[in-house]
Amino acid sequence: MAPFTSNQRFLQTPYITPHILHNSYAATQESDRYNHLLGRDLEYFSQAGFDMDKVALKRNAPPAQLYEDAVRNEGAIISSTGALINFSGKKTGRSPKDKRIVYEDTSKDHIWWGSVNIKMDEHTFEINRERAIDYLNTRDLVYVFDGYAGWDPKYRIKVRVVCARAYHALFMNNMLIRPTEEELKNFGEPDFIIYNAGQFPANRFTKGMTSTTSVEINFKRMEMVILGTEYAGEMKKGIFSVMHYLQPVKFGQLSLHSSANVGIEKGDVTLFFGLSGTGKTTLSADPHRQLIGDDEHVWSDTGVFNIEGGCYAKCINLSPQKEPEIYAAIRFGSILENVVYDPISRSPDYNDVSITENTRCAYPIEFIPNAKIPCVADQQPSNIIMLTCDAYGVLPPVSRLTPEQASYHFLAGYTSKTPGTEDGVLEPIPTFSTCYSAPFIVLHPGRYASMLAERMAKHNVDCWLINTGWTGGKFGGSGKRCPLPVTRRIVDAVHSGELKNAEFETFGVFGLQVPKALEGVPRELLNPSLAWSDKQAFEREVRKLAGMFNKAFALYEKDVDEKVRAAGPQL
Q1: In 221-309, at which residue ranges do the beta strands (DSSP E only) sit?
Q2: Which residues have a Cβ under 8 Å from the Cβ of 419 and sit 6 or more positions away?
Q3: Alpha-carbon dihedral 209, 214, 217, 220, rounded to 10 degrees
Q4: What's the distance, CA 59 to chain centroid?
Q5: What 8-state DSSP symbol labels residue 443?
Q6: What integer pLDDT is reported at residue 50 of this predicted model?
Q7: Per-residue pLDDT for 87 more than 50?
Q8: Crossing angle (nearest 10°) for helices 445-459 and 403-412
Q9: Most exposed residue of 82, 340, 379, 506, measured as fewest CB within 10 angstroms of its CB?
């Protein structure tokens, strides 16, 4: 027999080790075992336009099988910790300018139309929907995931995801609430469907299209179509937009872009509002409290519940020292998205941003040790914490807000992005994101703000504005970031009731109530006017920021009560 040489069978054969199947599995093909689509389910796919003679469907395939498919077909990598490293292609973030909502009779009078919610006509949606299904029909394998959005059975919706990538199926397996076998067996017709054909471009010459990317929601059909982007976060935030519409309109409940936790001893619930970089995820992770969720919640008539079944955490500069729980959650079953890895060891490099700064990890919430499962608290919130990162260094580290001030700051949604040196920007960039969720707002912001005010008044909820940004000066000058231990001490004082019983003084132009003293926090930190050595510079920056607030809030002035208008900074 001739000696075996390279370039022979090992390169030609995709599998070296044959499958060894469990004896109860031996007579069953994978497609049969995980294709629980029978009767009306199959009829649904046929009616939707799927060629059931050609397309193989995998419904709610387990993570191990999705790993195999992603490695085999999509170039995915298994990291040294067991997570699946996958890549979203050209798009590494959301495409807000390509988001559309169909203008139709059932929802048109509720939608806040404008730059966030751009109109699309029904005919164009039908064209794109058919384009997406035509593309999915060309795939040898199509994935279906059926799950829930919302942990409270009274208000949850059934979601079906139809996609062509194992990466997308595993992502939504992690981000939606996973049904039990019995729930899946009796799932029935979904309330909302996502058709994700993101590998295939939209036709930019179709009416209303501005690019080859299209992310569109139709509330009459209760469907979402994705073309021209493989970024998985579009599905997550698409479901949030749907819940941002359905919860107030259909259920009369308040959907919120927030994290939430509950005290282990007292059972007291706290909601954390905040934009990216303010500490929402970090501060809601507390060893003395259980995590309800880190991003999307509903404040219902009976308590607070998480919308999602998982977390979608940023990975940039991630370390076990900074974020030990998130770091430990990156294991088998989780997805690392667009993360660079060592080609030999397969170790992720969280400091490498050569693909994107928006590196992410999606994992089931059960991977967080102190998560509250089910992710629902049958208790009304005791505290609301609004987080801001003020790079101008003029807002106090903590302020107690009146109900009117709470409505004002909720509508304003202020934080500031620190400038990057590469683009030469020397000033902080102020960001006003109404309701702390402007890209996902569906109804007029005043509607969410009114519901928030009503619930706060009904349940006597305390509201706090906490600045995790700069103090003693502004970014790039003499200021320093407020130390995380100080902010944690403030949050602990909120939860213990210590702050509620403190003595307060009024903070200048913004009219905020600031504690005079808090054990463990220096007096000059509590009142920024004492921390700045240059008092004139401080006054200039205060007035400058106040002017920005007034300009941003002008968009909502005519729609809010006079008391709310007066709750902002006074120049």
Answers
A1: 223-227, 254-263, 269-273, 289-293, 296-299, 304-306
A2: 425, 426, 427, 428, 429, 475, 476
A3: 50
A4: 25
A5: B
A6: 77
A7: yes
A8: 150
A9: 506
Instruction: Give the confidence band of 263 by pLDDT, cuts at 50, 70, 90.
Output: very high
CATH class of 380-567: alpha beta
- Tokens 């400091």 locate to 351
Length of the chain: 571
- Write down the domain spans for the chain: 380-567
Return the number of other C-beta atoms located less than 10 Å from residue 425's C-beta: 12
In the predicted structure, residue 419 carries a pLDDT above the cut 50: no
**Res. 459 pLDDT band, cuts 50 70 90:** very high
More confident of the two residues 430 and 549: 549
In one-letter notation, the amino acid at residue 189 is E
Q: What is the pLDDT of residue 184?
A: 94
The residue type found at 107 is: S
pLDDT digits (tens, 9 = 90+) for 16-44: 344 444 444 443 455 455 555 555 666 77
pLDDT at 526 over 70: yes
Distance, CA of 209 to CA of 406 (rounded, Å): 39
pLDDT above 80 for 10: no
Q: Which helix (H) or strand (E) segment is 171 a member of? A: helix 166-175
- Of 430, 436, 420, 342, nearest in space to 394 by CA: 430
Distances (CA, A) of 350 to 167, 302, 330: 20, 40, 12
The token pair at 456 is 């706060």
Q: What is the maximum span of the chain, computed from C-alpha positions, in angstroms?
A: 94
What's the whole-number mean pLDDT along residues 227-231? 97
Q: 415, 427, 444: which is closest to 552 by C-alpha?
A: 415
Give CA–CA dist 60/370, Å, rounded: 27
CA separation for the pair 160, 157 (Å, rounded): 10
Distance CA 28, CA 37 (A): 15
CB 417 within 8 A of CB 277: yes
Return the axis-axis angle of helices 63-74 and 166-175, rounded to nearest 10°. 150
Instruction: With residue 492 as reference, give the H or E element that holds it.
Output: helix 484-496
The secondary structure of residue 341, as a DSSP letter, is B
Higher local confidence (pLDDT), 46 or 522? 522
As a three-state string, the secondary structure of 22-53 is CCCCCCCCHHHHCCCCCCHHHHHHHHHCCCCC
Residue 226 CA to residue 224 CA, distance in Å, equals: 7
CA pair distance 329, 468, nearest whole angstrom: 25
The per-residue pLDDT for 22 is 45
Residues 166/70, Cβ–Cβ less than 8 Å: yes
Per-residue H/E/C for 547-563: HHHHHHHCCCHHHCCHH
* Cis peptide bond N-terminal to 343, omega within 30: no
Lowest mean pLDDT, pick from 279-283, 333-337, 381-385: 279-283
Active site residues: 94, 237, 257, 276, 280-281, 295, 360
Helix (H) or strand (E) holding 12: helix 9-12
Q: Are 325 and 368 in contact (CB under 8 A)?
A: yes
